[in-house]
Write a structure and sequence with these properties.
By secondary structure, the protein is of the alpha/beta class. Helices cover about 45% and strands about 10% of the residues.
């Protein structure tokens, strides 16, 4: 307490701190009682903490990772970060993250809202745990097309219907594949009323719930038959580390141009940036570089992630460690990169 000038100074600090922390008085009440201004009370409280006169201890319950959450918020300029317990069993780890994401979503649902919905196993698990206390009349709309080969129920339409059923809302389907054969076909489909209407609803959503995909040979896009393994390997070779809604980014969060971007039926990264609140949920051990890359893209406001991925993503972002993307991930390139058709 080297900054305390004398006994009178120490007495003043102690008196203000006792009234605030022990007696529960407001700063305005303390100011009135001591005959000083409220800003003066605020400065005295700050000094009391800085000088060590006040030692605040927080009994953190098991399973909370508040320091990691603080680091994620600061590193990636997030509104919030929620870190859940990891587990040796990836199913358990996914359930932990999905349960936390479900609480995050349902706490923010307001009647009349529109929620854009992504795809994948992490996102599909969220719907299992959304259980609001009362029905909430929201609209859940697919943010991208799907695939008949996707693991049920990991298509956006399936997830949107599950969320609508759980909340008493309604679902708007996007009757289109995630990727089509050409940019021309993409444009024709997007001009169709049913497709255009669904995408227009998704683009003005107040909330989006999305997953973060990797670029390993077993990633969601490969399992769903949207992209063949050879093309994922090409994406890796030009620096892609992950995707959100089928939009691929490198470890710096820059878009990785490819023919697949021109064939995508869904929201773009710019569309996501215009949605007020984007919640991303991620688990699975192969995703740290994907998480860091997508968070650096500036499209996510809240991330819900397991502890192991949180630590690895922070390490990847801090050190730029290429090994974080996996042995098969190629170096990040610069400029205008593209993948062969």
């Amino acid at each position: 307490m080297n900054g305390i000038e004398d006994f009178a100074d120490a007495e003043r600090l102690a008196r203000v701190a006792h009234r605030y922390y022990h007696e529960g008085q407001t700063q305005a009440q303390i100011a009135a009682g001591l005959g000083v201004s409220r800003p003066t009370v605020q400065r005295l409280l700050q000094r009391a903490r800085a000088e060590g006169m006040v030692d605040i201890r927080i009994a953190v319950p098991p399973g909370l990772h508040l320091d990691l959450e603080t680091s994620l918020r600061g590193r990636f300029s997030l509104v919030d970060a929620i870190v859940t317990d990891g587990a040796a069993d990836p199913i358990v780890s996914r359930e932990n993250a999905a349960r936390a994401a479900a609480m995050c979503l349902q706490d923010r649902l307001v009647a009349g809202m529109t929620v854009a919905v992504g795809h994948g196993r992490d996102t599909s698990e969220v719907a299992r745990f959304v259980r609001p206390d009362r029905p909430v009349a929201c609209t859940f709309v697919s943010a991208m097309g799907g695939s008949p080969r996707a693991d049920a129920p990991t298509n956006p339409d399936d997830i949107g219907r599950a969320l609508a059923l759980a909340t008493g809302g309604r679902a708007v389907a996007l009757f289109a594949p995630a990727y089509v054969e050409s940019a021309e076909l993409r444009d024709r489909l997007r001009a169709q009323e049913a497709v255009a209407a669904a995408l227009a609803v998704a683009a003005v959503a107040e909330i989006a719930v999305v997953g973060i995909g990797g670029v390993d040979d077993g990633c969601t896009m490969v399992r769903a038959g949207c992209i063949p393994p050879a093309e994922i390997a090409r994406l890796r070779s030009v620096g892609a580390v992950g995707d959100v809604l089928g939009n691929y980014v490198d470890r710096e969060g820059r878009t990785v141009p490819s023919p697949y971007r021109d064939r995508l039926i869904g929201l773009s990264l710019d569309d996501l940036r215009r949605i007020p609140l984007v919640i991303a949920v991620a688990s699975e051990p192969e995703k740290p570089a994907a998480i860091a890359g997508v968070l650096r893209a500036g499209v996510v406001d809240i991330v819900v992630v397991d502890e192991d991925n949180a630590r690895a993503a922070l390490g990847s972002a801090h050190a730029g460690d290429p090994s974080a993307a996996g042995a098969s991930t190629g170096p990040a390139g610069g400029g205008d990169r593209s993948v062969g058709p």
